[in-house]
Structure formats: structure tokens, C-alpha cells
Write a structure and sequence with these properties.
The chain is α/β, with parallel strands linked by helices. Helices cover about 30% and strands about 30% of the residues.
Length: about 250
């Protein structure tokens, strides 16, 4: 199970467009590490590399000290990195437990005949959910009946079922209201308490300073600055991103 992730000198071109030009980040075990930057900074491309969606032209991803080559998302999952994209990829008309075990359904046998082990899937789903949101106790509820924040919990539970040590959250509070946003931030805190490493991509500086331990700022596909978030305000972080400053002002 992955716990520490490094990206070293990552380059990625799309034709003549240089999306990443030597980006490097180090994400420590058990921390919440935010990746920020203006549009076109390279955040999405970096996440695609970590998720196995894209293969870098140069550079490498290092998991717990060992270089890894991801050619698809399954490779990243096997290495312990689960990425939860903005669209969540949940099935609204299916139940919570069906979503958590989607593609990995548990089966049992009775008189030699295989059948879905719904009881075990519901039980295990509740175990995963209790780590994040104890108010959700009925695993038979359809996802379409849940709030945006609760749907995030379902998607994160799927990552826990994969036994991921690193959870990447891509804009998890986008388009959510104040109450739902706070639910998602609490989910991130719960992941950290559970010993998971979290990589957070967000345009909300308020959210970043609320939950992240450190933040890496990208600009035009390159590293700009890395900051500790302790004592940092949302306005401070926005100023760094907009100004392009490469050294921290105390």
C-alpha cells in the first residue's frame, strides 16, 4: 500500500504544447498535500500522470522509494494510488454498496451455485463508510438520493475498498454549497486520521488552507513555490498564485 509519492522532473507534451516542463513534487506519508495554480498551470496533467491516465515523456513517479511506470489507471491502483475525479464516476441509480463494490462484486456459493454476496458487501461497505461519515448507515440507499458531499464519501469508500494508501481528490468541492463543502473537508480530515496520504487539487484557496499541510504551486507547467499552510491565509495563497512569486514572503 503506497504511502509516499514523488514526481521527479515530469515532462509532458501534447504536440507543440508543453503541459509539464520538469515538475517535481514530494508528498510525505500521512499528509494532505495540495496542488494549486492558475488555469494552464499543469495541475490536471500532473494528476493524470499520477493516476496512470497519461505516461510522462520524461521523468518518473516514485512510490515509497521505488520508481514506477504506469501505463493505465489499473497500474496506479495496484501501486496504491486511487484518483477520484471531479465527475466521481458513481452510478446514481445503484445503491451505496453496489457503487463501492462496482466491478469487484463479492460472490459466494450455495449448493455449488454462485450468487452475489450482498450481505457481506453491505457489511463491508458500512465498515468503510463508518471511517468517513457515521451518519450514513443504510447501504441500500440509492446514490441519487445523496447530497454532493455524501456522494464524495461513496467515491472515497471505493478507494478504501481498493486499499489505497494515497487518495487523489480532483476538485472535490467544485459546484458544492457551503454545507456540502464542509462535509467534504471533514472527509479529507477523516482520511488523514485513518493514516491515508491525500493529494488535493483545488481552486478554492479557503479549502486548501483549511485542510492541507503543504501546498505546491505550479505555473505554466513548472514548479513555482512550495509552502507550509500553517499561518497562511486564503488571500496569501491567492497572492502567490497571481503574482508568480517564487520565494515565500514572511
Amino acid at each position: 500500500m503506497a504511502t509516499k509519492v514523488s514526481a521527479k522532473d515530469i515532462h509532458k507534451n501534447y504536440g507543440a504544447v508543453e503541459a509539464l516542463r520538469g515538475v517535481s513534487i514530494d508528498v510525505q506519508e500521512g499528509e494532505v498535500h495540495a496542488i494549486c495554480g492558475d488555469n494552464g498551470a499543469g495541475k490536471s496533467t500532473l494528476i493524470k500522470v499520477l493516476a496512470g491516465v497519461e505516461t510522462p515523456d520524461r521523468g518518473e513517479v516514485i512510490i515509497d522509494g521505488s520508481p514506477c511506470l504506469f501505463t493505465n489507471p489499473t497500474d496506479a491502483l495496484r501501486a496504491g494510488i486511487a484518483t477520484i475525479h471531479q465527475d466521481l464516476a458513481v452510478a446514481p441509480r445503484m445503491t451505496i454498496y453496489q457503487n463501492i463494490f462496482m466491478g469487484a462484486e463479492l460472490t459466494s456459493r450455495f449448493l455449488g451455485v454462485p450468487f452475489l454476496d450482498k450481505k457481506t458487501m453491505r457489511r463491508d461497505s458500512l465498515t468503510y463508510m463508518s471511517q468517513l461519515n457515521k451518519s450514513i448507515t443504510d447501504m441500500n440507499i440509492k446514490v441519487e438520493a445523496l447530497s454532493g458531499g455524501q456522494r464524495q464519501a461513496v467515491a472515497i469508500c471505493r478507494a478504501l475498498r481498493w486499499n489505497a494508501g494515497v487518495v487523489v481528490l480532483d476538485e472535490p468541492t467544485a459546484a458544492l454549497g457551503v454545507r456540502e463543502t464542509e462535509q467534504v473537508l471533514e472527509l479529507i480530515r477523516s482520511l488523514k486520521k485513518a493514516g491515508k496520504t491525500v493529494i488535493l487539487i483545488s481552486h478554492s484557496m479557503k479549502d486548501v488552507v483549511a485542510v492541507a499541510d503543504r501546498v505546491s504551486i505550479l505555473r505554466h507547467g513548472e514548479n513555482q513555490l512550495q509552502l507550509e499552510t500553517a499561518g497562511l491565509s486564503a488571500d496569501d495563497l491567492s497572492r502567490y498564485i497571481l503574482s508568480g512569486e517564487t520565494t515565500q514572503v514572511h
